[in-house]
Design goal:
Blueprint lengths: L1 E5 L10 E3 L4 E3 L1 H13 L6 E8 L5 E8 L7 E5 L2 E5 L1 H7 L2 E6 L6 E5 L5 E2 L5 E3 L1
Parallel strand pairs: 2-6, 3-8, 4-7
Antiparallel strand pairs: 1-2, 4-5, 5-11, 6-7, 8-9, 10-11
Length: 129
C-alpha cells in the first residue's frame, strides 16, 4: 500500500511516500473530470488532494482540492492517470476507497465509496467511522 522509500531525499523539498490503489482508487470518469479541471486551472501536472475533516451531519466529511504539488508527509497515489495525495491522518479513514464522478443534474458530482464508513448521511457527503 505505501512504500517506505521517500520520493525525494533533499531536505529543502517535501518528503512524500508512494502509495497504491489500495489506499484510494480513481474511476475513469473521475480521472477524466479531475484532468479537465487541472487543465482548466493551468495545472496539468497538479494533484488532487483528498482529505477527511470534521463536520457534516455524520461527523466527518471529505474535502477535495486541486493543488500544484504534494506537501510534506503526503502519500502519493497514481490512479487512472491522476496523481492523488492524502495526508497520513486522512489515510486512516480513506484506505480502500474509490473516488467516482457522476455527470448528472441531480445527485451528480464526485462520490467517495468508502468501505470504512460505519454510517453515511442521506446526501452521501459525510460519514462516521
Amino acid at each position: 500500500m505505501i512504500s517506505a522509500a521517500a520520493i525525494n531525499q533533499n531536505p529543502s523539498q517535501p518528503t512524500i511516500r508512494v502509495g497504491d490503489e489500495r489506499l484510494i482508487k480513481v474511476s475513469a470518469s473521475a480521472a477524466e473530470k479531475v484532468t479537465s479541471l487541472l487543465t482548466r486551472q493551468g495545472r496539468p501536472n497538479g494533484v488532487l488532494r483528498v482529505a477527511v475533516v470534521g463536520g457534516g451531519c455524520s461527523g466527518m466529511q471529505y474535502k477535495m482540492d486541486l493543488q500544484d504539488a504534494p506537501a510534506n508527509r503526503d502519500i502519493l497515489v497514481q490512479s487512472s492517470g491522476v496523481r492523488v495525495v492524502v495526508d497520513p491522518k486522512s489515510a486512516l479513514y480513506v484506505t480502500g476507497s474509490e473516488l467516482d464522478y457522476i455527470d448528472a443534474l441531480q445527485e451528480g458530482g464526485f462520490k467517495v465509496k468508502n468501505p470504512n464508513a460505519a454510517t453515511t448521511c442521506s446526501c452521501g457527503e459525510s460519514f462516521s467511522a
